[in-house]
Amino acid sequence: MPKYFSNLSEGIKNKAERIKLIVTDVDGVLTDGGIIYDNNGLEYKKFNVKDGFIVQYLKKNGILVGALTGRNSKVVELRCEELNFDFHYQGIRDKFRKLEEILDVLEIDITEVAYIGDDLLDLPLIKKVGFSACPADAAPHIREHVDFISVQGGGHGAFREISELILESKGLLSSIIERYLN
Prior knowledge:
By secondary structure, the chain is an alpha/beta fold. The protein has 9 helices and 8 strands.
């Protein structure tokens, strides 16, 4: 086990081990929360390549990945499609209701879902999923309700760290790392 996961409680490891689906917010998790508009009204966001790189290993190991975000953005659509997310929905105010619809189709129990969020719209999911997490720079009232707080901030590897925690809890991370050592 990587040393940065060595102090995790058995309860956290057990919750993470059951995960079949990781759902994430976008702004503040996959990005640092900043939005840049140019003089033509074009929107820019910065995503972390390390966060994106781990998605292929989640999917290869049978873990579905999706995004639910309150904003609408072509940039987000492009990023989620590039990473081959299993689903991504934008403009969602009631994330819990949308997730219930998705889980009915996928036939996954809410206890088998990890949710990563950073602000108030995320609280209903954070309180109900099997495993909840947030970036280090999430709002304080979010950090007090999650199972795990990343040492990384949003857009700076938080999604990667949380994904690796789930892979490690399932006993899958070592073989992924080994592939690159040999």
